[in-house]
Structures are given as C-alpha cells and as structure tokens.
C-alpha cells in the first residue's frame, strides 16, 4: 500500500489527488441519465420493461412482474437461519432505538403581546427507498433507510432494487418483511429513481428518495431533485483512519480493506504519526488481501485509491483528515475521545480499537447512509428528519398587529409592494376605529 509523508516534496500533489477521489464524471453520464428519465416520464412501465431487459437481462412479461410479492418476503423471513433472523432483529431494534432519539418536536412560543409563533413537524406522505443490487446485495441498507422512515411516521414506503437475471437476495426479502414493506419493485438504476420521482402505472410517485447507488443513480437523484427531495448525492464508499504508535497494524489493515472490498472506486486513507505503524500496516494489507473473497476488487481499490500518510504530529494529521472529511472515520489512538473535539468533518466517527467500521454498517444503531467525497463538510448522515418537513406557525393578536404592523407596512413600502402594505394597514385602520 502506498505510503507518503507530509515532508515529501510532492506531498501537496499527492494529497490533492486524494481530495479529488470523488470527482466522478456526472457531467459525462448526465445526457444518458436524462434520456432514461425522459423515457420513464413519457412511456412509464413500457420504458421500465425495456430498461430491465437491457440492463438486468430478463424479460418483463406483465406489469405484475415488476412487483415483489409480500408473500415472498414472508417466506424468505420464515426460511432464513434462526441465528440470522435473530441478528436482523438485533440490528432492527438497535437502529430503531437510536433513530427514535432524533425525532424533532413541534413547538409553540407565546409572546407578551399575544403573538403565537411555532413550528409543526410532519412526516412526508410517501418515501422512496433505493436499495442497491448488482455486485452485492445490501439488506442492511434496507434497514438503514426504512427504519428512519418508519420512525418518522411515513405511511407509505416504496422500495426499488435491481434484480439481475430476475434474482433477488433472500435476506433482502426477509428484511423487507421485518420492516413491513408491502410495495417493492424489481427496478434499478436511473430508471428506478425516475419511476419514483414521477410515477408510472405501477410505481407511485414519492415525496423523497433516499439510498445509495452507482454514478447513474447519483446523477438521476441530482436531476430529479426539486421534483422530489433527496437525502444526498453519495459516491463510492470510503474510510479514513487516524492512528498513533499504539494502534495495532493488523486492525488497521483489515479495517482499511473493509471499505476497499466494496468497490474498485472505494477509498481507504490512513493518517498516522508513526513510521513503523505505517510500514507494518502496509505489510498487513498485502497479507490480508490474499485471504479476501473479493480480492480483485479490494486490490484495485487499495492500489488506485488507497494511501497511508505519515504526519509530523497528531494536530497535522487531524487537520488533513478534516480536509478529507471522510464518510467513515476511525480514531485508533491511545485516548480517542480526547481528539473528538478537534474532528470537524466526518460522516460517522468510530472511537477506539474495539469499534471497527463494520459495527456501524450493521447494528451499532446510527445510520450507515453517509456523506462521501468530502461532502461531510455540509451533509449529515441519513436521519429521521430526511423523512419529515416543517411548517411555520404564525398567529398575531390585535395587540400584536397594532404594535408591529406599521413597521411591517413600511418595509413593504420600501420594496414597492403596495398590496402587502395595504393588507396590514387595513387591519390597523379597522382596529383603530
């Protein structure tokens, strides 16, 4: 694994390459995705069937073929290994408990002059969840997207997932049953995003779309934003690790590979203050690579988008990691909590050597749908509020409008909005009769 030092003369060039890790060619695929969206808007299910036959390689004979039968979900749930079913329930309960703590509250505030101001929080009516398929199936992503929607109070949840060769992961079906999903469809890629954004004869239009996907899915979400809300535009998975001389190299190595095995485009970046830890971790990465079921994918990721940086101090290491703003950040230092106040930008922060990133992927409780590509500087993890919206509440008494009305009308006058000003002043005139 490549090791670079902040003292190297070419370090800035190398680091700029790391910061550019998520520069994907959205512009290059926008035309393709826009054409897919246009076809869905124009032809609905007919276009969906064409796209499935082209990309997922199976023939859709009827509209019903697009649907996943809830009975199949229950059958899968009943048939999975008991220990695996128990693991699903542990994950479900922990994720639900965590997200229940996020529920925002409606509130009212009463002023002395009789003004009542407040905020009403409501769930969206219908949420669309995109669950990836293809190289791997992710039942955990179903839990992470469905549970916050359920906690938010969304009444109707729509799931779309690709099914190459008309095959669907049994554990994903079981997770759908556990979450009470009744509307799920065998549709993937940009076609699924368009179908949920605009609706077809079979798939209902939703209010918000969440869930990760490839560049075509990310581009489609960007293009339909405004027609619906979205959670974020996520890129390939990534991990950052801060490590000092106390960190165990074999822990560091396998944790770096836990993201590399996702995708050839995934990024695994470690910053350490110790040359020996850097060297030994690189050796351990090579040792572990040979044991992985997805060695080819992980090796390309590590070779193309992995790096170990040796920093001169932990302060420098943290500053660099804040600039990277990774999706996942592990802090593998002697006193991990002492560094927490200085970490500004990360999707999820894993503190201590017994908190590997996969714990967060599956059942710690916090959401694993996280901002990537430095967008943790302004995006948050998927949460309950992604499935809710807020309405302002305003109520002025006679005393309140008498007290504040003329100032309001004056501001309207300065903007040339005479009807605005008059709407206030007619009430002042009436109140002063």
- CATH class membership of the largest domain: Alpha Beta
- Measured between the Cα atoms of the first and last residue, the distance is 83 Å
Radius of gyration: 26 Å
CATH-defined fold name of the largest domain? Rossmann fold
Strand order of the largest sheet: 1-11-10-9-12-13
**Considering the protein shown, what is the CATH homologous superfamily of the largest domain?**
Nitrogenase molybdenum iron protein domain
Proportion of residues in helical segments: 40-55%
Shape: globular
Q: What would the average pLDDT be, to the nearest integer?
A: 96
How many domains? 3
**How many helices?**
17
List its traits.
14 strands; five-stranded parallel β-sheet; Rossmann fold; globular; 3 domains; alpha/beta; 433 residues; 17 helices; single chain
Quick structural summary:
The protein has 433 residues and is α/β, with parallel strands linked by helices. It is 46% helix and 15% strand.
Description:
By secondary structure, the protein is of the alpha/beta class. It has helices at 11-19, 26-43, 45-55, 70-79, 82-100, 139-152, 170-178, 189-198, 215-224, 249-260, 275-289, 295-305, 314-324, 336-339, 357-362, 398-414, 418-431, and strands spanning 3-5, 107-110, 116-123, 126-130, 156-160, 183-185, 208-210, 229-230, 238-243, 267-272, 306-310, 328-332, 348-351, 388-395. It folds into three domains: 3-24 and 235-364, Rossmann fold; 26-230, Nitrogenase molybdenum iron protein domain (Rossmann fold, 3-Layer(aba) Sandwich), CATH 3.40.50.1980; 396-431, no CATH class. It contains 17 helices and 14 strands. Strands 1-11-10-9-12-13 form a six-stranded parallel beta sheet, with helices on both faces. It has a five-stranded parallel beta sheet with strand order 6-5-4-7-8, with helices on both faces. Strand 12 (328-332), helix 14 and strand 13 (348-351) form a beta-alpha-beta unit. The N and C termini lie far apart (83 Å).
